[in-house]
Amino acid sequence: xxxxxxxxxxxxxxxxxxxxxxxxxGGQNGNILLNANESPKSIFFKSKKKSFNRYPECQPxxxxxxxxxxxxxxxxxxxxxxGADEGIELLIKAFCEPGKDAIIxxxxxxxxxxxxxxxxxxxxxxxxxxxxxxxxxxxxxELNLSKVKLVYVCNPNNPTGNLFLKKDLISLLNITLGRxxxxxxxxxxxxxxxxxxxxxxxxxxxxxxxxxxxxAFALAGIRCGFTLANKEIVxxxxxxISPYPISIPVSDIAVQSLELDYIELMKNRVxxxxxNRTWLMNQLKNITCVERVFESNTxxxxxxxxxxxxxxxxxxxxxxxxxxxxxxINLNKCIRISIGTRLESSRLxxxxxxxxxxNMFQGAISEx
Length: 368
What we know:
Helix 4 packs across helix 8 and helix 10 runs parallel beside helix 12. Helix 7 links the parallel strand 5 and strand 6. The chain has 12 helices and 13 strands. The protein folds into 2 domains: about 120 residues, Aspartate Aminotransferase, domain 1, CATH 3.90.1150.10; about 200 residues, Type I PLP-dependent aspartate aminotransferase-like (Major domain) (Aspartate Aminotransferase, domain 2, 3-Layer(aba) Sandwich). By secondary structure, it is of the alpha/beta class. Helices cover about 35% and strands about 15% of the residues.
């Protein structure tokens, strides 16, 4: 009987591997969670709303106005979504014909661009970043623009932590003008605010920017994101968004987080995170099981380890949960580490030093 039901499943879903989020793969079973790029510190809010018997606004006016003020854009350039992930999906839903159109994404990067397209039955063109620099391969992107409606770029990039050259992003906007939308995912932009492309929205009608409150604002639990674009794109996305995507408590807390006092607190958290990142990177460079520490502009770092499988499992068993990246293109032996508190980072360093000493590391041991 079950087999008969499964025959009803769409063919492209039958063999789909869902996005392996930190919580989905059991990454909450530790006492030091450095695997989901969340803020290690909580912010406490009290809901100002007391009644919930009415449906919320589809696009809460107060929240849009607050975010418009924060990013210095007009009200009609902003769509509120359930995290940036919903923005990724809405763009595919609104602009891509299944079985006809395509997207481009540039791995190693955030997998939801690819997975969202696959769910929608939209072709995926994979144009990896340049191996040794992780910069955009503009030549191959331009050669593969046929049928492409959306080009997704995560900047700063996850999981590599690098920034794309602004001149390359501008070149990408120029070569796609009139042909495709360039979707720049700025989920981590508060950690490198000068690198935002939001000031180019007036100049490039094909530019779309994704934002979130999950990272620097320390509000991953409320799932609130924003799509920034010209007003015609926002109007189009409003046609396909769910009737009531933003709950009243989410909107209430998000508005509070965008008050000036809370924005200052966010900036202080970013400064603290960036300082902890620098400290941790310097510490890791002196540990013998570490093969390479990559530069980062975010609240996480990518690290290449000798004996990487054993390092990952040893830390996991001690309740220090990191994020495995070895299976991704050009990330052999790599693990991503979210920036925790200084105390959490110190514990991580201590355990890695113990691991190195215990395994009598000589600097030549590797794992395939």
